[in-house]
Design brief:
Helix content: 40-55%
Structural class: alpha+beta
Mean pLDDT: 93
Number of helices: 11
Largest sheet: 7 strands, mixed
Number of domains: 3
Strand content: 15-25%
């Protein structure tokens, strides 16, 4: 059995890495971090021309018809470069539309996502910072033939620039109490967006308020009776995608640490000759390789939609969250004093590690989910 990547997947990786080296060098990343939105829009346009937003969507809606494995290859490269584009939130919201929407809804929204004309994000977390439906209070009620949304979502990535918001809400009890996934254009009347403080300046977070926001009846994706199981499946895929982004960042931290250990000289010798530094780098390598194994296995399980998909998604998110946080911290330590300075890039990866760790549940939350799935 061949556990390696195919020639096509390796070509996709090389193409992505070469493109990002040219289109998203760290100088460009820092320009966007300093407020140059035009650089981000131009990079997104070029990525859309390559078909990346629609990579894992069916050809019937304008996608390339590839699997989660190919999507994770691209996400890994995006994580290495810290490319300042709303790729992951857009794809995650698109997956929600694909999983929950009927054919008409898919044909309405997904072609725009696949060709890059529209960016999107998933609005799920509220005051308790949880993705558990029991912790959600945002309400959707049917009134005069349309849905009206009232409530507030927090920590919504890239909400201020998104064209579409996929919103998780509790539906009106009179229409069958449960969950609903709604597509809401960001410019809808009653939608207010406020920027929140974020450690990761390359992935802005926002609070989104809904004040009697009126949406047409077909804004509800599919049937609300099925929304809970669909949302669980969407979030599991999202955790795999986040894990893929994290392994790219962790591998970049390892490479940065090794390169610095070879070039930094103390007492006439590179610091890499010291056993303590060697052991740090060896531990990072071990964690990165294990992180790759569980993430791509989880991506395969998600593509096959088999029974292992939920638990492997939780395993990947838990393990890779710890691995990336550790690799980014060790990279700073190996760099020493300069690792804490703004001029070096170490802090950018550390901040992304913390940002990705908390998105859709941190490692401890995933371990709790694993224990429940194992009936422990």
């Amino acid at each position: 059995m061949d556990f390696g990547f195919s020639e096509e997947q390796e070509l996709l990786r090389k193409t992505a890495r070469d493109f990002l080296a040219d289109g998203a060098p760290m100088t460009r990343v820092r320009e966007v971090m300093d407020g140059d939105a035009q650089a981000s829009r131009e990079l997104w346009r070029r990525m859309a021309e390559l078909g990346w937003p629609g990579l894992a969507f069916p050809e019937e809606v304008g996608g390339a018809g590839m699997s989660m494995v190919e999507l994770c290859v691209v996400l890994e490269e995006l994580g290495r470069s810290l490319a300042p584009v709303p790729f992951l939130p857009t794809v995650l919201a698109g997956v929600a539309i694909l999983e929950a929407g009927d054919e008409t809804q898919q044909q309405t929204w997904l072609p725009r996502v696949c060709d890059g004309r529209a960016t999107a994000t998933l609005a799920i977390t509220e005051e308790l910072g949880s993705d558990d439906s029991a912790d959600m209070d945002l309400r959707a009620r049917m009134e005069d033939g349309c849905w009206r949304l009232d409530g507030r979502k927090l920590f919504v990535p890239h909400a201020a620039s998104a064209d579409l918001l996929v919103v998780v809400a509790k539906t009106d009890a009179a229409n069958g109490a449960g969950l609903g996934l709604f597509v809401a254009p960001r410019t809808s009347d009653g939608v207010e967006i406020e920027e929140m403080s974020s450690m990761d300046l390359l992935r802005p977070l926002h609070a989104v308020s809904f004040d009697a926001v009126a949406l047409p009846a077909d804004a509800l994706l599919g049937a609300d009776a099925e929304a809970a199981s669909i949302l669980a499946r969407v979030l599991d895929r999202g955790r795999v995608m986040i894990a893929a982004e994290m392994i790219g960042g962790a591998e970049k931290c390892l490479e940065s640490a090794v390169a610095y250990a070879k070039e930094r000289v103390q007492f006439g010798k590179p610091i890499g000759v010291n056993q303590a530094i060697k052991h740090k780098c060896a531990d990072m390598l071990l964690e990165v390789e294990l992180a790759k194994s569980i993430t791509y296995y989880a991506a395969w399980a998600a593509s096959e939609a088999n029974d292992e998909a939920p638990i492997t998604a939780a395993m990947a998110k838990a393990y890779v969250s710890d691995a990336y946080r550790h690799a980014s911290a060790e990279n700073i330590q190996i760099h020493g004093g300069v690792g804490f300075t703004w001029e070096y890039d170490c802090h950018l990866y550390f901040k992304r590690a913390k940002s990705d760790e908390t998105w859709l549940g941190d490692a401890n939350r995933q371990r709790e989910r694993i224990a429940r799935m194992l009936d422990l």
